[in-house]
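Regression test attached.
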Amino acid sequence: MNRSPEAARELRRAYLFADMAEEHLNALFQTAHDIHLNAGDALFRQGQPAERFFFLRDGMVKLFRLSPEGDEKIIEIMQPGQTFAEAVMFMGTHGRYPVNAEAVNESRLYAIEQKSFLNLLRESSDACFGLLGSMSRRLHMLVNQIESLTLQNATYRLVAYLLEQIPRDVKTSPEVQLTTPKGVIASRLAIQPETLSRILAKLRQGGLIDVHGNHITVRDVQALRNLVHLPPVE
Amino acid sequence: MNRSPEAARELRRAYLFADMAEEHLNALFQTAHDIHLNAGDALFRQGQPAERFFFLRDGMVKLFRLSPEGDEKIIEIMQPGQTFAEAVMFMGTHGRYPVNAEAVNESRLYAIEQKSFLNLLRESSDACFGLLGSMSRRLHMLVNQIESLTLQNATYRLVAYLLEQIPRDVKTSPEVQLTTPKGVIASRLAIQPETLSRILAKLRQGGLIDVHGNHITVRDVQALRNLVHLPPVE
DNA sequence: CGATGGCATTGACCTTGGTCAACCGCCCCC
DNA sequence: GGGGGCGGTTGACCAAGGTCAATGCCATCG
């Protein structure tokens, strides 16, 4: 595939590639494949041999596990600019994807061959460090998730999720536009859709938020922060 | 500290060091410190600046989070021959430990300076690969834990834990010696000690196991495997 | 030897969140 | 315009597991 080096810059949005040498990034990019998914399309299934990993250009992809009964738990919702499944390469010989991946919205991705990436890692310790950084961030994220699943209740998890959706620099009464169907958020938080509804209703009745479909107006940030034991914002 | 190179071999038990060049391992080992902990001693606290990571020689160390109310959730129970807190080095500048670490039993460890390890990683891509392997194993373990916390109930988690304790090659009615107090196991499985007791009693009444204090005799492996949807052992 | 304290067990009760079912609003499509 | 399907909401009920309290069981120690 013939690709412009400028387009490789797009990859720099990912932590994994942020500090990678220009030449390495270009070389890697030459072997990348374009992927287009419609909403609901599967990208890979748990247990399949993992020969490539992915950079999400736009759209949204969910990573999830299924129970034998068919219940779904979303481990992570990937956002544009993020990479995923890079870690699988190191799961012994011939790793397999440990989760399922499916597009939530229409999505465009680059698929990168693990073989070429492995070659690169052998040569460039900077690339190694980029990957180590990516993986330790994900590790930390999973530990946080385990903590909130075990030590906190459903209301806590939902409120924490809402607060995460508020951009850092907002001071005024913040608006949150839910970017995924509520059912997806429920699965990410490991609660049932009905429970999500009820918690939102409770927060609404308490005057903490307003809900209009996907759009939530936070009326009392302070109260929400208290609920999750966060210090008041100065 | 003056150390015999032979003793460095001890470190090879850890995946992280298994394939590392002899010279590198020795160099790293020269800067290692001995640590001795009594049962209940803290090794580090969540939030402390992380300047070293650890190799557990013997004993047992728990890694855990605390809720604001003081409830404890054990993320991982470290066994002799394992390393932990290696990943923290890559959490941006001056990482901090994301969990607490405390000895369950009397323990001996080596503490390894992250600085010397970082230097080594820059020089040796083999060392990098060892670390990447360690981290992806831990990543996988955490995903499994999230799955069983959200998609499975308490009985499932306990049975899965018991089956994990059975050595691979045992065919006859297997004996499980619990190596930690039941309260520790309960926290690892995210259940209350009372619930652990009750589930064991239920399994006992069902004729699946015998319980004598810390010692559990599995009377019906097949039935237990069915409970956690594992295929029958051939 | 009895006292103390930590761990485990058991029972009674309660709370959270899941389950099941009905229903609404909306969009799409025939 | 009517029907159907999907996502979300609401209500009634239920159950798994948490909470609280009493008790037992050792092991340790004075």
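Expected vs. actual: identical. The longest strand of chain A covers residues 52-66.
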